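Quick start: what a row looks like.
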Amino acid sequence: MFRYRRRTLVLEVVTVLAVLLLLTPFWILVMTSLKSGPDVLTTPAFEPPQHPTLDNFTSLLSPSANASNSIVNGLENSAIITIGSILGLVVFGSLTAYALVRGKSRWTTRSYFLFLIAIILPTQLGVLPLYVEARNLHLVGSRIGMIIIYTGVLLPLSVFLYAGFFRTLPTEYEEAASIDGASRLQTFVRVVFPLMSPATGTVSILAGLIVWNDFFTPLIFLNGSAHQTLPVVMYNYVGALVSQWNLIFAIVLISMVPILTFYVVAQKRFIQGFSGGLKS
């Protein structure tokens, strides 16, 4: 029988204080984004705005003279590149991992270890040759090029996560589908892949966070083009706004909302992915 003891009370108090401490930056972010320019300079950061306003958000999301460098354009580009990269990683990562785990030849094990090595190696080592090759293929400055680059760079991580789940999947499911006359591809699409929803959720959230928040790669491959992602647009805005913290914090909040919404929707699969996911 559970007893409410002094130790339990201390743990609850510590937990509440830790949560409040972690939420402090977010509180400052929201409060500052709702203040006008003069209020930011005359009121403390913790203090709620006396006259909350959404003018900061409307001014940032309104049509801009420089449409290629607008927040709306950055949101659109980030969304397209992120969704495209996630789809590519889910499709190619799951197929590759399935072939490596279910394969019985020597090359499958060796290839899997090559993917593990690719996870360890820093991505920045290959930026220069990757940029040269992308320029030769006319992929620099395009959203398709960024989707291909992200899919290739994050494919080892996707294969690693999917392979761990495929190893926990009993082969009886596939044997039953094979007896019913299903081909290998039909077995994967109709039987195996639907069972991998926890792994798919994990891959989608991790890849989405990485691609959405990435600044370095779009800065190299998209800077100066009409397809700049939101982090690059934010960088240009912050340099122009200087000390207008209400607008800067509003931009940060705008960039957080889509990925936070995606995480809230998919967090069940994400938690299942890290806790073992599939139960036979």
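That is the whole record. The chain is about 75% helix and 0% strand. The mean pLDDT is 84.
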